[in-house]
Design goal:
Blueprint lengths: L1 H23 L1 H37 L18 H6 L7 E2 L7 E5 L2 E7 L8 E8 L8 E5 L2 E7 L5 E8 L2 E8 L11 E5 L27 H8 L23 H5 L5 E3 L6 E6 L2 E6 L8 E8 L7 E5 L2 E7 L5 E8 L3 E7 L10 E7 L1
Parallel strand pairs: 1-9, 10-18
Antiparallel strand pairs: 2-3, 3-6, 4-7, 5-6, 7-8, 8-9, 11-12, 12-15, 13-16, 14-15, 16-17, 17-18
Length: 362
């Protein structure tokens, strides 16, 4: 029994060694192969990530910066009231300014387009409705105040503005444009009349039976003659006296294009009164009511360096500066009467008064 047991033990020894040799080295090889594969995948992923980042960075850096559609900001603050009052009207800034009768002025890069009720061509001002481009400013008057509306804005590179100026008798679109990147235009903006809607057709009124005619009593001779009397005197057609050239003042053609403004008593004496910005012009012609004008003398507030007063051929032409705070007086003498011309603009009024002054008998 012992001999068989020993033989079996020796027979099992080679088998055990063979099993140890086959099973012992395989895990070692697998374990050593695993680390080799992992770093390779990580390196590929890292390279791929780096390449993608570089490509994205290149695309982003190659894209052009976005172009701003906003106009350039003003380089100076909005002018004060005193600065605007000191600025002269520059009619070359706005095309067709005479169609509505709005006067442009400029202080640095700032523009003011102002409209005063009595000097306008389409009645009293109502409002300014901004369509695009013009931003609110402290001194803009977009709703009528004291017979005035103002649009104040900086004229800078990139501006593309549009606004509608409304009056009791019509409307105008005002546009101002400075294309971005281009030289500054000499003309800031332009006015264009807007078409007025046609009135709806009305149905014909019903025709009633005619009432029996009543006899009209004859008018009294004195009243009939008074009713037939013309409202305005008949003016002579003699040429006006020669006018000197005054720098900054409107030309004769520009004056002729303007409508009259209110000066009480002027029509009855054959005088025409007009205003263009802060310039005022009075023309009195010889007529059948007053006769020829023989003399005119400034008695208050008139500056000879800022205007002129000429008399000739029985007529007179006066051109003077007229702004807030003005208080002017002139003595006028005709063949048949004499009177005093007064022009006033109170300090308390932002815009010119409806009646700029009056001519009163002396």
């Amino acid at each position: 029994m012992r001999t068989r047991s020993l033989r079996l033990s020796w027979f099992a020894v080679p088998f055990i060694f063979a099993s140890g040799a086959c099973g012992g080295e395989a895990p070692t090889a697998a374990a050593s192969a695993a680390p080799t594969t992992a770093p390779t995948s990580s390196a590929v992923a890292s390279a791929s990530s780096t390449g993608s980042a570089a490509t994205t960075s290149a695309v982003v850096s190659a894209a052009p910066p976005p172009v701003s559609k906003e106009p350039a900001p003003p380089s100076s603050p909005e002018p004060t009231i005193k600065e605007w009052e000191a600025a002269k009207a520059d009619l070359k800034l706005v095309s067709h300014w005479d169609r509505p009768g709005c006067m442009p002025r400029r202080v640095r890069e700032w523009i003011r387009v102002g409209c005063s009720g009595q000097m306008l061509q389409k009645g009293d001002p109502i409002e300014i409705s901004v369509e695009k481009g013009f931003k609110p400013t402290p001194l803009s008057i977009t709703k009528e105040r004291a017979g005035t509306i103002w649009l104040v804005f900086p004229f800078t590179d990139g501006l593309d503005g549009s606004a509608v100026f409304s009056f009791s008798g019509g409307s105008f679109r005002f546009t101002a444009k400075w294309p971005k990147g281009e030289p500054e235009p000499k003309v800031v903006g332009s006015f264009e009349a807007l078409a007025e809607p046609e009135p709806a057709p009305e149905s014909p009124p019903e025709v009633a039976d005619p009432a029996p005619a009543e006899a009209t009593p004859p008018a009294e001779p004195a009243k009939a003659a008074e009713a037939a009397k013309p409202v305005k005197p008949t003016l002579t057609t003699d040429p006006l006296p020669e006018e000197p050239v005054l720098e900054g003042a409107p030309t004769r053609e520009q004056w002729d294009a303007l409508r009259e403004v209110g000066v009480r008593g002027s029509d009855a004496r054959g005088c025409q009164t007009k205003q263009s910005g802060d310039w005022f012009r009075v023309v009195c012609r010889a007529n059948d009511v007053t006769g020829k004008l023989t003399s005119a003398t400034a008695t208050k507030g008139f500056d000879e360096k800022q205007g002129y007063l000429v008399v000739g051929n029985g007529s007179m032409v006066l051109v003077t500066r007229y702004a807030r705070g003005s208080d002017l007086a002139f003595d006028l003498v005709w063949e048949k009467q004499s009177a005093r011309l007064e022009l006033k603009w109170p300090d308390s009024s932002a815009g010119p008064p409806a009646m700029r002054g009056e001519i009163v008998a002396k």
